[in-house]
Amino acid sequence: EVQLVESGGGLVQPGGSLRLSCAASGFTFSDHYMDWVRQAPGKGLEWVARIRKRGNSYTTEYAASVKGRFTISRDDSKNSLYLQMNSLKTEDTAVYYCARGQCSGGSCYCGLNWGQGTLVTVSS
Amino acid sequence: DIQMTQSPSSLSASVGDRVTITCRASQGISNYLAWFQQKPGKAPKALIYAVSSLQSGVPSKFSGSGSGTDFTLTISSLQPEDFATYYCQQYNSYPLTFGQGTRLEIK
């Protein structure tokens, strides 16, 4: 059974930092692109970041709203995905989901599987 | 960025009904279009990718169609467990973008 379990969320002041983790199991983690997606309270889904697999040099992509502040990384030896979030703003308040990518027909979509999410609240 | 616009934003239907949700992209996205279902307090669930390919385990009552910029998700014979919010996602180019969601409610 595929499992993605996020952790690391919590309350942080504006300007602060937080590191989210996602532990993966039930599939060959190293074979997949991985994403972070967030959902502000009562709002829709917003893609945040992607990291490709080793065969694609672990290259990354970011949403403009987080570029330069957030860093996505992975440790295939630990089947884990991370999101380092710096210079946090109140508008970063959201549930953050870890999602497994699936590649088909020349491109890769986000969200074959999802974790349960971890809540990040940025407030003074 | 490619904008994804879903219509309607909300929809009321009855058990047994057939409903269609539309997703329009601001520019062509080939067939790189996926659909997701989300229930309150839960993570999204993948339904369809590549416009019309059903994810494993998803019942055939869900179907997708379209090309270029206009896409649809059709759900036949609605059951109580189908009432949820549905999102489309384009993965043709970065940033990946989702539609704003369509809330399907019981009439």
Helical percentage of chain A: under 10%
Gyration radius of chain A, in Å: 14 Å
Distance between the termini of chain B: 36 Å
Shape of chain B: globular
- Report the count of strand segments of chain A: 11
Unreliable segments of 5+ consecutive residues of chain B: none
Count the beta strands of chain B.
11
Polypeptide structure, described:
The complex is a heterodimer of chains A (124) and B (107). With 124 residues, chain A is an all-beta fold. Chain A is built from no helices and eleven strands. In chain A, the strands form two sheets. In chain A, strands 2, 4, 5, 6, 9, 10 and 11 form a seven-stranded mixed β-sheet that branches. In chain A, strands 1-3-8-7 form a four-stranded antiparallel β-sheet, with no helix packed on it. The mean pLDDT of chain A is 97. In chain B, 0% of the residues lie in helices and 50% in strands. In chain B, a hairpin with a 6-residue loop joins strand 9 (85-90) and strand 10. The model of chain B has no long low-confidence stretch (mean pLDDT 97). The A-B interface holds A 35, 44-47, 50, 61-64, 97, 102, 104-105, 107-117 and B 1, 30-32, 34, 36, 38, 43-46, 49-50, 53, 55, 87, 89, 91-92, 94-101.
Topology:
The complex is a heterodimer of chains A (about 120) and B (about 110).
Chain A: E1 3-7, E2 10-12, E3 18-25, E4 34-39, E5 45-51, E6 60-62, E7 70-75, E8 80-85, E9 94-104, E10 107-114, E11 118-122
Parallel strand pairs in A: 2-11
Antiparallel strand pairs in A: 1-3, 3-8, 4-5, 4-9, 5-6, 7-8, 9-10, 9-11
Chain B: E1 4-7, E2 10-13, E3 19-25, E4 33-38, E5 45-49, E6 53-54, E7 62-67, E8 70-75, E9 85-90, E10 97-98, E11 102-106
Question: What's a concise summary of this model?
Answer:
By secondary structure, chain A is mainly β. Chain A has no helices and eleven strands.
